[in-house]
What does this fold into?
Amino acid sequence: MAPSKSSTQEFVPIQEVRDGILVLKDGGMRAVVLASSLNFSLKSDDEKNAILFQFQDFLNSLDFSIEIVIQSRKLDIRPYIALLEEQHKKQLNSLLKIQTEEYIEFVRNFAENTNIMTKNFFIVVPYDPAIIGSSTVSGISSLIGGKKTTPAQASEMSFEENRTQLEERVGVVEQGLVRTGIRVARLGTEELIELFYKAFNPGETEKPLKAA
It folds into this structure.
């Protein structure tokens, strides 16, 4: 019996990415917030205590769960090398040209001999709406004397209502993190697609850069 072939999409719980929101196959919705890091070791004891107490208050204020994801990836230094090489070509001063060439070689050797990692911190904000059948939606519509709602219209109404609930949660998370001194940025549709594409295709970062 030949082994069955399954596409990667079957193992990904995401139905679609819409308006900066991950819509899951089970109807759940997720928003992703990128958070900056803090150099905790450089803070004074009073500052450390203030940050810890503020973060504790933030967590205690939540009436829903969140997920904190830390992504570690090897830093791709090639775009920076390409930029330096372009500047090297445009350099007219012979001394600066030599210094730029030596710096390029230093950076290249350092990157090859050192495992340089970059870390990104993400906060996943969830909202899992209650599942309401289409017959229930039609029944509610008839009770209030409105026009019969089509499945497409009901789906759109449901998305907007659930989106409002999710946006409120995102606002609570962003405000709480900002109070601790952390900078935040909500990921949009393109950023989410890129994030998950790289997560499921880690080998892409190792491919040679396309020639200009």
Remarks:
- Residues 62 and 172 are 8 Å apart (CA to CA).
- The chain is about 50% helix and 20% strand.
- The two ends are 48 Å apart (CA to CA).
- Confidence is low (pLDDT under 50) at residues 136-146, 208-212.
